[in-house]
Specification:
0% strand, single chain, 101 residues, flat, mainly alpha
Length: 101
Amino acid sequence: MSETAKSRAAALAHLRSRDFAKGDPIPLPLTMASIFHTPGEEAGFDQYGRYDNPTWRAVEHALGHLEDAQCLAFPSGMGAISSVFFALLKSGDRVLLPADG
């Protein structure tokens, strides 16, 4: 592990502390909700857990910090694979896959 990677890993323990407010829990609370009650709000708030939630954002932030890159988390491997295909392929493109995959 390079020194840069070691320093990023060491800083990971303090990554969340920048956003602390008085009374916030030290360990990241897991958000187990699948839907969120946001009356009258159309944007800017969590609405459905499959698209986004506070736990996912924290994981993406931590992994992005470790890799020094942007990070996206997906609810499943199929979600990740299909997102890559939708981002890179256009209508009519073909994908060659092995018979067992």
